[in-house]
Model the fold of this input.
Amino acid sequence: MTASRLSSCLSVVLLLLASSTAQRMHEPLSPAEIDQLRDTAMEPELRLKLFVKFSRARLAALEQMRSDPKVTDRGLKTHDQLEDFVALYDELNDNIDTYVDRKDDVRKPLKAVIEADTEFQAKLRALKNAAGVQEAEAKQYEFVLSNAMEALDNSAADHRKLLVEEEEAAKHKKKKASH
Done:
């Protein structure tokens, strides 16, 4: 009976831990955005453009929040919004990988992604170099900002390289089709 009671207690504790962990998980997408992405799962061009749009919206919201003098906890909110941006950007990259693995033509949406990479890099650099930010505030988000900038720089290089590879593959495919 003691072993049974201990087992029951352990089960309850594990269940509570699992539910508290699940509550802390934050979804960077709204339900409407999730629906839009679900509707475009088989359309690389539309889906990748949506990820760019949502990522851009996160950075715009971040800029707006940072310029609002009424905002409190600016450092923490900057951290959280940067995490949302990084989560979306990672998801964008995962989708690019999926479409490439499926041999989908991603040249056109990749051009839009590369343009967005440049825009996003400039916005993150501006955040890093922002004047008048208190050191204590900057410390709250400097790690996630540094990671975001590094991920963005690496991904931008990967996206440009992938576009060149995709263009070459399309040329070879065209040559084979004409022979």
In short: The helical segments are 2-24, 31-39, 44-67, 74-101, 107-128, 135-139, 142-178. The two ends are 79 Å apart (CA to CA). Residues 31-178 form one domain. The first helix runs from residue 2 to 24.
